[in-house]
Amino acid sequence: MDSAIKKAFAELPEQVTVPQIATATGRTDSGVQNWIDTYDDFPDVLDVKDRFHLRLRRDVLNWLAKHPNLFDTKRRGPQKLDERALAARPAAEFLTVKETAETLGVSRESIQYYAASAKPEVSRDPFPPAVRRGTSSLRSWPAVRSWILRRDDPLPSSPLPWEELRTWLLAVHDLEKDDSAPGLDDRGLTYAQRDVLERVRVAVAQGHTVPDGWAEGVLGLNPDDAVTPDAGPVAAGRMTPSQLAAELGISLGSIRGYARRYPAGCRDPFPPKDEHSARDVEEVRSWLSRSGSLPSGGI
Fold first, then answer.
1. CA 68 – CA 59 distance, rounded (Å)
2. Through-space distance between the first and last CA atoms of the chain, rounded to whole angstroms
3. In a 3-state reduction of DSSP, which class is residue 224?
4. Which backbone phi and psi does 139 adopt, to 5 degrees?
5. Coil, strand or helix at 172
6. What is the DSSP string of 59-120?
7. I want to staple 295 with a disulfide (CB 3.0 to 4.6 A). Which of 215, 249, 279, 286 is the partner?
8. CA 116, CA 124: separation in Å to the nearest integer?
9. For residue 218, what is the enclosing H or E element?
10. Alpha-carbon separation of residue 299 from 135, 257, 271 (angstroms)
11. Alpha-carbon span 96 to 73, nearest angstrom
């Protein structure tokens, strides 16, 4: 291990935070978080103070000594990834691994690493799931962008007072809300709005409480728009509204309109959505066919 790292650690307090570890090792906060998510033997959290997880300095230093490969400069990951994510404005919302890598200026292997090291079974904040469209495997860019930005600002596992949680939920939104040329998703939501919705989803999934209707109110959205289309892995044969629209050749507004005009209890209700806002593709296809609303190219 580099003597400069040992010296930097010697100047730290007995219990250290992720930002302090990052500074001492010359990495970003997200780089250290990668170690935490990837290595089962990374030192455990001993305490939480002001939203920061604390670990014993000596335990972290000993762990680093056991993993000298982390300091091989040829293996270091991309730097300033959050800045690249904030600046990127890809032409499409759903991107392949190659397109995502090009958007961020990293290798395809880097994107594949994030997906593999932050799977739902090993990470509290999994990498956005891929969806199939024809022969392509695609991910929502706003969801990937939000995930990258959360890497530098992970949500503490311990309960937070509402004001602290609210600050975390609005962190990127408050930074970008006055952007004169904001990025937009397929629904017309700005990247700043999508980031709030993604953070709400993550917070709720991790057991935090977000008041009902809060996101709609603070962002000025109707309830349908305040649902993230990437709320987690969707079961085979099911698609979210934007995916259904692309698959069946109809507009996203039509999907929402049918759901509102033909609710449960009517003579032929539109197929119901699940907890991920996904519907059975074949059920929707059959319903559209019965109603005469399925385009000829969507059969």
1. 15
2. 61
3. coil
4. -125, 150
5. helix
6. HHHHHHHT-GGGG-GGG---SSHHHHHHH---SSSEE-HHHHHHHHTS-HHHHHHHHHHT-T
7. 249
8. 14
9. helix 214-219
10. 18, 20, 17
11. 28
d(CA 126, CA 172): 19
Gap between the Cα atoms of 203 and 91, Å rounded: 29
pTM: 0.57
Residue 38: CB atoms within 10 A of its CB come to 14
Question: At 140, which helix (H) or strand (E)?
Answer: strand 136-140
Q: What is the dihedral of CA 90, 91, 97, 101, to 10 degrees?
A: -30
Angle between helices 108-117 and 97-104 (to 10 degrees): 110
Beta-carbon count within 10 A of 103 CB: 21
Name the residue type at position 102: E
Q: State how far the Cα of 143 lies from the Cα of 180, in Å rounded to an integer.
A: 21
pLDDT digits over 31-42, tens only? 788 788 777 788
For 184, the 3-state DSSP assignment is strand
Taking the C-alpha atoms of 202, 204, 205 and 206 in order, what is their torsion angle to the nearest 10 degrees? 90
- φ, ψ (nearest 5 deg) of residue 134: 65, -125
CA dihedral 158, 164, 169, 173 (to 10 degrees): -150
Containing 279, the helix (H) or strand (E) segment is strand 279-280
For residue 77, give every residue at least 6 positions away whose Cβ sits within 8 Å of its Cβ, in sequence order, or none.
Answer: 31, 34, 106, 110, 113
Distances (CA, A) of 233 to 95, 127, 225, 229, 239: 17, 10, 19, 10, 10
pLDDT for 156-192, tens place per residue? Answer: 878 889 999 999 999 999 999 888 889 998 778 899 9
- Give the bridge partners for 47, in sequence order: 54
